[in-house]
Amino acid sequence: MNQLTTYTGGCHCGAVRYQVQIEKLEAVECNCSICYKKGFIHLIVPESRFTLLQGQDSLSTYTFNTGIAKHHFCRNCGIHAFYRPRSHPDGYDINLRCLDGDPIEQFQITSFDGKHWEEQINQIQNKYS
Fold it and tell me: Which stretch of 1-5, 12-16, 87-91, 96-100 has the lowest confidence by average pLDDT?
């Protein structure tokens, strides 16, 4: 196992704050309709490596299609800082753009064809399991 790197992050207004421990500096950019519109860059982690520090009462949840993914967002500022992904419902998917200190340049970002989710999902499930 690689050494874990700890980051903090949260929403724009600061109501929602979290800490995440990351093993690999790898993220995924998806072109599906919701990810593209939100500008979400995916950093998928096991539940054990995610801690919500504050803001549970400031979160709202959006679901669609199968209802499996739980798209959490701050009801004050509207930012989607993390969510429970359909691909990994027992983990968390962190928006790389919401980490403190803007570490995006440290990450290797690969593309995922989310427009064809059903045909492509094995790429992510196998890589981040």
Answer: 1-5
Contact 8, 19 (CB under 8 A): yes
**Residue 59 in this model has a pLDDT that exceeds 60:** yes
Q: Which two tokens stand for residue 104?
A: 């995006």
Q: What does the block give as tokens for 24?
A: 């690999």
Residue 36 CB neighbours (<10 A): 13
Tell me the C-alpha distance between 20 and 52, whole Å: 9
CB 81 within 8 A of CB 98: yes
CA distance 120 to 75: 32
Say if CB 51 and CB 18 are below 8 A apart: yes
Tokens of 111: 């593309």
Amino acid, res. 94 = I
Residue 56: phi and psi, rounded to 5, are -50, -40
65: left (phi over 0), alpha (psi -120 to 50) or beta: left
Which one-letter DSSP state was computed for residue 23? S
CATH number at 5-127: 2.170.150.70
